[in-house]
Specification:
Structural class: alpha/beta
Number of strands: 6
Radius of gyration: 16 Å
Oligomer: single chain
Largest sheet: 6 strands, parallel
Distance between the termini: 39 Å
């Protein structure tokens, strides 16, 4: 377990203090949740989800942020979609049956073995109100800071996408966007990775 931050509410000064902390690349881990072939077609604004998840994966590669990728019962629901898998050729998906990634011993072990002090989890994937929400809550219980890219997560319905975000925010997760994460982690237009990412930010 990482250093506990306690259970915080958006209305507390603790939550405000956490929200003021800048993201630090050497403290982050990116988790790409269940962007799978048979799950993606009915997802609300699926093109946005894929595009922004790709942006975060590219950012993680540039900044050397370790990335974990999961699938939910791949035998029945298919593998990770090619648009995502192709950006992580050396990352083997962690297949799970529990909706919460923290219900997987393999996932927990791999997250804890990441180099450095990884106390912040960046989340993208689906579905917002099921696997992403439950993973967010699990991470918070384990003492991680959690940032959710609101435009890189979704659900089959807009209603459930929004409810998932509301639940995560109420639990203490910070709700942002893919671009917020990118610009916050890069810090400057003079950063080495900025020009590399710029074409994807303009698109």
């Amino acid at each position: 377990m990482v250093t506990a931050i306690g259970n915080v509410s958006p209305l507390t000064s603790d939550y405000n203090e956490i929200a003021r902390r800048p993201l630090e690349a050497d403290q982050c881990a990116l988790v790409v949740v269940d962007i799978q072939e048979k799950l993606l077609p009915p997802i609300f604004q699926k093109e946005q989800l894929v595009k922004n998840s790709q942006l975060l994966i590219r950012l993680a590669g540039i900044l050397r942020i370790p990335t974990l990728m999961t699938t939910q019962y791949a035998k029945g629901l298919g593998g990770t979609v090619p648009e995502i898998a192709s950006l992580l050729p050396e990352t083997e998906p962690i297949d799970k049956h529990m909706f919460c990634c923290f219900g997987s011993d393999v996932f927990c072990s791999m997250l804890k073995r990441m180099p450095g002090k990884r106390n912040t989890v960046l989340l993208c994937g689906m579905e917002s109100h099921i696997c992403v929400a439950q993973t967010s809550l699990g991470a918070l219980r384990e003492g991680y800071l959690v940032h959710v890219a609101s435009d890189a997560v979704s659900s089959r319905t807009e209603w459930n996408w929004k409810l998932g975000l509301e639940r995560m925010r109420a639990a203490g997760a910070l709700i942002s966007s893919a671009e917020m994460m990118v610009y916050e982690l890069l810090r400057s237009s003079g950063a080495p990775g900025f020009k590399e990412l710029l074409p994807y930010l303009k698109g």
